[in-house]
Amino acid sequence: MIKIAFDPIYAHPLPENHRFPMLKYKLIPQQLLHEGTCTAAHFFSPQPCLEEVVLWTHEKAYYDKLIHQELSTSEQRKIGFPQSPELTLRELIITQGTVDAAVHAIAHGAALNVAGGTHHAFAERGEGFCLLNDMAIAANYLLHKDLRKKIIVIDLDVHQGNGTAKLMENNAQVFTFSMHGATNYPFHKEKSDLDVGLANGTTGATYLSILNEILPKLLDDVQPDFAFYLAGVDILETDKFGKLQVSMEDCKTRDLIVFQELKKKNIPVTVALGGGYSPEVKTIVEAHCNTFRLAVDLFD
């Protein structure tokens, strides 16, 4: 059985002006349980990530600022959230969820996190609603524990995984692949091992054609023994910030392509959700639930 990291705290300690996009963390498990895609046995509640594990990726001075609520006003502005102990705890739980999911995926082929994909966090700072880089931390955990040798990060959020790219730029054991809006946030892009910038208005057909052309060959070339997949749904044509023309069905096909290629090559995968900012929360939830439905169908 695949496992899905979830804790109710994901949905709560957030400023009022950011509650709408974050409602998905509460609604996604409810929908999956309601429709019978998942049972309670699929879900687990992670504990906060340990300081030692965080510090394999992030600088101690930054970690201490998070723990002791010492971020400057400027640092909080770049993150997009006012600091609070609850927010730091939430981030530590999300991060451990991705770590735990990675360990589970090694044994069972796939695991998911109902959160995560905090790819804008750097070693010494956070930005773009990201405090800690959960996939980078989980990748370093697998390498540190000698559980995997070669990892690929497949980042298909509409925003470049700039923090992940920077964190892993000198790590030959982690290959970073980001396919994103070329003119979208972040406006200063870091250098991933492979960046594919998409023009505004890119259609679903073009998007899927590019992915189909790149991903199989990339997996053959990199030869990873583990994958992290950031399945952002901000590529949707309905998204307020995405600037692409990708339908709900195309977004689902994107997930299917990734899952089928990884399964074909026996590469375990951990999935985190990333962004989604369509005006109606039901659109966001449905797109994310498609990712879980496909994972359960293929790996459970």
From TrEMBL:
<dbReference type="InterPro" id="IPR023801">
    <property type="entry name" value="His_deacetylse_dom"/>
</dbReference>
<dbReference type="GO" id="GO:0040029">
    <property type="term" value="P:epigenetic regulation of gene expression"/>
</dbReference>
<dbReference type="InterPro" id="IPR037138">
    <property type="entry name" value="His_deacetylse_dom_sf"/>
</dbReference>
<dbReference type="InterPro" id="IPR044150">
    <property type="entry name" value="HDAC_classIV"/>
</dbReference>
<dbReference type="InterPro" id="IPR000286">
    <property type="entry name" value="HDACs"/>
</dbReference>
<comment type="similarity">
    <text>Belongs to the histone deacetylase family.</text>
</comment>
<feature type="domain" description="Histone deacetylase">
    <location>
        <begin position="22"/>
        <end position="290"/>
    </location>
</feature>
<dbReference type="GO" id="GO:0004407">
    <property type="term" value="F:histone deacetylase activity"/>
</dbReference>
<protein>
    <submittedName>
        <fullName>Histone deacetylase</fullName>
    </submittedName>
</protein>
<dbReference type="Pfam" id="PF00850">
    <property type="entry name" value="Hist_deacetyl"/>
</dbReference>
<dbReference type="GO" id="GO:0016787">
    <property type="term" value="F:hydrolase activity"/>
</dbReference>
<keyword id="KW-0378">Hydrolase</keyword>
<dbReference type="InterPro" id="IPR023696">
    <property type="entry name" value="Ureohydrolase_dom_sf"/>
</dbReference>
